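REVIEWER CHECKLIST
Item 1: Sequence provided? yes
Item 2: Single chain? yes
Item 3: Sequence as submitted:
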Amino acid sequence: MSSATLSIDLDALAANWRALDRMTDGPTQTGAVVKADGYGLGTARVARTLAKAGARRFFVAVAEEGAAAREALGPGPQINVFAGHMAGDTDMIRDLDLTPMLNSVEQLTRHLETLPGHPFGVQLDSGMNRLGMEAGEWAAVAEIVMAAGPELLMSHLACADEPDHEMNARQLQTFVELTEGTGIPRSLAATGGILLGQDYHFELTRPGIGLYGGLPFEGARPVVRLSLPVIQLREVAAGEGVGYGNTWIAETDTIVATVAAGYADGLLRSLSNRATLWAGDVPCPLVGRVSMDLITVDVGHLPEAPEVLDILGPQQTIDDLGEAAGTIGYEVLTSLGPRYLRRYSGGGQ
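Item 4: Structure as written out by the authors:
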């Protein structure tokens, strides 16, 4: 086959959710973030697997993602929308029983006026300066919000992947000050916050990247393997260049494999001359520039010609590849393109 294969281990996904769930005490519920098409792995399969593992509260970025999650999950599980109640979303929120996390007085007004009695939560800004009501806004509307019966009060940590960062304790204190005594379930911790310990767990955690095998959850099981087919092999003599711009020149005679994937498939151009692919346990350097549909790999040291090379798998995680690209595992994972043949295993498939 000329299409690359993205293998997705749903048993590993479920195991990661259960491992993160075990890190919290009994009263704390563990949700699951399935935004960005289940971090690029397919909302339907991901959400159903996590529901089977025990998740009952899911989080998406926007209402349209909530529609995909509801289609996958059916009635029952709560689907929370981080972007809140945007203009034009009212019918979708009502018809699909989505729970918006209201981020402003404007959204609060819209929700209470158009969908009185419909479930909602509130996002508070505890210091990240991104989404959520600031302390002054919250003080002005808290009485109205409490009377309307919110499902959840939440905030988001800015530096949870750095356990010793002073911002974590500062945000925790602010969040407690804003929410203490309300009697409403609270959520502050995503994956990094779970790892910070019980003080950050409150009534609900909402792991994301850790479910999919990424840092900062070092104990996560790998969920994805990306195998790229070799289209052509060619002998390259010492002194010859490879790829656009001749940015790699062979120092000795070698064999170069042309492989079917490129930046149109989410292999970032910054990986040019920096990434490693794998033939089993043997590393093979990416040589030359990443182009739209193709990359080139030095395989002259292999004992036999490979049919496929792995760029993600047991030898190289999404975070390893992210480091080579000068980015993070999140971007690697969510950039994986639609041309990959996605093959699922486990999860009761």
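Item 5: Key structural point noted by reviewer: The chain is about 30% helix and 25% strand.
Item 6: Recommendation: ____
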